[in-house]
Task: inverse folding
C-alpha cells in the first residue's frame, strides 16, 4: 500500500512495509515513537519538492477545493500507476477525484488518519534532504499566503494608514484651533478691529504675514487676499484703531506663529487628499455611503476594516456612543440612536423626526458595503452607489409622507399656506405686583368720609356685642354653680334619712329572738316557690 502525504515543502509518497501492524489502530502510535521504529513501518518512495511559495500555494488551494494539480497528476501517473497498489489519502474528496480521473483505487479510513499522524510526528527523520529551518520557513510563508487567499486579503489594502491618517487629521484640527485662537488674541491687542472684519482664519494669518504692523495697512495692497470692499474697510479701521502699540520683536513672534498656522493648514489639505485617495482604494463602497471622514473614523474606532466587517449593523449604528449607551442602560432610559454615523450627509439632511430611522437603514447598508470592501474581489463602488440611491429614494418617500393629505385619495400633496408673521406686542400689567385693593384716582372726598364713618359704626357695634356676650357667659357660669350646690345639699339630706331607717330596723331584731328563725326560713320559702314555677313551665 502507498501513502500520499502533503507537506509545505512538497509531495511525499511512502511505501508501507509491514501492513500487519497497521491493523491495531489504538497501539499504532507506539510504532512511531522513534525515527528507527517509523522507518520499519514506512519508507519514502518518492518526494516531489516545490520550487517556491507561489507553487506551494497553488497546489494547496487546488487540494482544498478538491482538485488535482498538474504536478500531483504527473507524480501519480508516474509512480502509483506503475506500482499497481492502492493509495491511502487523507481527504476522502481528493480520493474520489483521483479515482475518477486517474482510475486509481484510493483508501480513506481511521487507520489512514492514524498513519498520517504518525508520519507527521517523525517527518524530519522520514524525509531526508530537507532541513528543519527550510521546512519551518516554507510552512510559515505558506500559512500566511493561504490565509490571505482564504480571506481574499490583498497586501496592498493596508487600512493601518487610514487609521493613522484620520488620527493625525483630528490632532491637526485641534492644534490649528489653538494656534489660530492664540494668534487672534495676541494680535488683537495691537489691531482688535481686524478680527471682526476678517472671519476666515487662513486669510487672517496671510494678511498678518504680508502687512505686519498696523501702520503698514495704508500703503499695503491686499487685493490678492481680500475683495475691494473688505480691503477698504480694513484700511479705514487701521487709521482709527484703538489698539496699543507693540514692538518689532512682538510683531516678529506673531508673524512666526502665522507662518506655522499657514504651513499646518496646507499640510492638512494635503493629508485630507491623501485620506480621500486611500479610502477610495481600500473601501470605495463605504466612502460612497457615508463619506471619507466618517468611514475612516469607523475603521479607526474598530481597529481595522476586518474588525469593522465583523460588527453587526446595530453595533455600527451606535459605534462611538458607548458612554451614552451604557449610561442609558444603567439609568433605564432610551438608548442612543446613532454614534459616528450621525455625521454622514444622509443623516444630516433628514428632519429630526426621521433621523433615527434613516441612521438604522444607513447602518444596515453600510455594513454590507464594509463586508464587500473587506472580503470582495471587486474594487468598484457600484454596489455603494446603488444602495445610496435606494436610501435617497426612501428618504424622499419619508419626507413626502408628512406633506400628503390624510383625507381623500392620499396621493395629492397638501397646499402650503402662505406664511404671515404676526407680531403681538404685550404690555406689562402692574396689577399683579401687589395684593392690596386698588382704588381709582377720581374718587370724591365725601365718599371716602362716609366709608370711614360706616367702618367706625361697625367697629362700635362689634364692641357692644362682645361685651353683652361676656356678661351672658358670666351669668350662665353663676347659675351652673348654684345648681351644683343645691344638688349636693339634697344628696346629703337623703343620706341622713337612710341612716335613720337602718337604726330603727336593727333595734327590734336584737330584742326578739324568734325573729331569727323566721328570717332564716324566708329564703327556703323563696326556693320552694321557684321550684313550683319551674314545674309549671
Result:
Amino acid at each position: 500500500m502507498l501513502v500520499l502525504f502533503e507537506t509545505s515543502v512538497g509531495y511525499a509518497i511512502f511505501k508501507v512495509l509491514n501492513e500487519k501492524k497497521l491493523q491495531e489502530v489504538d497501539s499504532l502510535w507506539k510504532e512511531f515513537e522513534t525515527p528507527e521504529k517509523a522507518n520499519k513501518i514506512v519508507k519514502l518512495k518518492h518526494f516531489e519538492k516545490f520550487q517556491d511559495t507561489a507553487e506551494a500555494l497553488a497546489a494547496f488551494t487546488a487540494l482544498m477545493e478538491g482538485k488535482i494539480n498538474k504536478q500531483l497528476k504527473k507524480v501519480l501517473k508516474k509512480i502509483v500507476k506503475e506500482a499497481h497498489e492502492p493509495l491511502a489519502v487523507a481527504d476522502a474528496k481528493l480520493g474520489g477525484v483521483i479515482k475518477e480521473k486517474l482510475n486509481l483505487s484510493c483508501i480513506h479510513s481511521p487507520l489512514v488518519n492514524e498513519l498520517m499522524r504518525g508520519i507527521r510526528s517523525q517527518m524530519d527523520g522520514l524525509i531526508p534532504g530537507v532541513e528543519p529551518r527550510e521546512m519551518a520557513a516554507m510552512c510559515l510563508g505558506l500559512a500566511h499566503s493561504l490565509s490571505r487567499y482564504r480571506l481574499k486579503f490583498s497586501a496592498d489594502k493596508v487600512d493601518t494608514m487610514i487609521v493613522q491618517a484620520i488620527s493625525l487629521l483630528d490632532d491637526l484640527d485641534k492644534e490649528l484651533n489653538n494656534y489660530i485662537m492664540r494668534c487672534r488674541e495676541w494680535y488683537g491687542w495691537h489691531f482688535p478691529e481686524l478680527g471682526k472684519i476678517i472671519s476666515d482664519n487662513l486669510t487672517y494669518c496671510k494678511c498678518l504675514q504680508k502687512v505686519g504692523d498696523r501702520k503698514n495697512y495704508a500703503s499695503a495692497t491686499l487685493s490678492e487676499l481680500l475683495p475691494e470692499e473688505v480691503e477698504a474697510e480694513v484700511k479705514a479701521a487701521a487709521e482709527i484703531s484703538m489698539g496699543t502699540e507693540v514692538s518689532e520683536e512682538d510683531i516678529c513672534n506673531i508673524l512666526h506663529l502665522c507662518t506655522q498656522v499657514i504651513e499646518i493648514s496646507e499640510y492638512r489639505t494635503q493629508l485630507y487628499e491623501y485620506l480621500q485617495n486611500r479610502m477610495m482604494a481600500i473601501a470605495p463602497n463605504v466612502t460612497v455611503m457615508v463619506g471619507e471622514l466618517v468611514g475612516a473614523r469607523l475603521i479607526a474606532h474598530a481597529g481595522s476594516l476586518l474588525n469593522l466587517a465583523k460588527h453587526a449593523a446595530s453595533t455600527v449604528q451606535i459605534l462611538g456612543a458607548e458612554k451614552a449607551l451604557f449610561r442609558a442602560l444603567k439609568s433605564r432610559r432610551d438608548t442612543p440612536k446613532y454614534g459616528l454615523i450621525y455625521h454622514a450627509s444622509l443623516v444630516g439632511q433628514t428632519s429630526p423626526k426621521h433621523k433615527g430611522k434613516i441612521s438604522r437603514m444607513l447602518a444596515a447598508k453600510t455594513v454590507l458595503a464594509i463586508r464587500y470592501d473587506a472580503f470582495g474581489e471587486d474594487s468598484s463602488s457600484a454596489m455603494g452607489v446603488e444602495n445610496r440611491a435606494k436610501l435617497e429614494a426612501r428618504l424622499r418617500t419619508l419626507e413626502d409622507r408628512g406633506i400628503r393629505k390624510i383625507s381623500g385619495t392620499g396621493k395629492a400633496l397638501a397646499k402650503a399656506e402662505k406664511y404671515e408673521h404676526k407680531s403681538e406686542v404685550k404690555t406689562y400689567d402692574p396689577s399683579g405686583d401687589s395684593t392690596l385693593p386698588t382704588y381709582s384716582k377720581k374718587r370724591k372726598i365725601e365718599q371716602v368720609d362716609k366709608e370711614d364713618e360706616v367702618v367706625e359704626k361697625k367697629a362700635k357695634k362689634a364692641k357692644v356685642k362682645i361685651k353683652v356676650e361676656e356678661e351672658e357667659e358670666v351669668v350662665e357660669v353663676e347659675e351652673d354653680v348654684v345648681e351644683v350646690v343645691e344638688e349636693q345639699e339634697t344628696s346629703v339630706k337623703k343620706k341622713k334619712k337612710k341612716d335613720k331607717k337602718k337604726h330603727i330596723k336593727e333595734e327590734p331584731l336584737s330584742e326578739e329572738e324568734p325573729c331569727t328563725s323566721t328570717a332564716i326560713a324566708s329564703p327556703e320559702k323563696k326556693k320552694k316557690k321557684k321550684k313550683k314555677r319551674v314545674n309549671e313551665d
Summary: Residues 160-271 form a domain with the Helix Hairpins fold (CATH 1.10.287.4070). DSSP finds 22 helices and five strands in the chain.
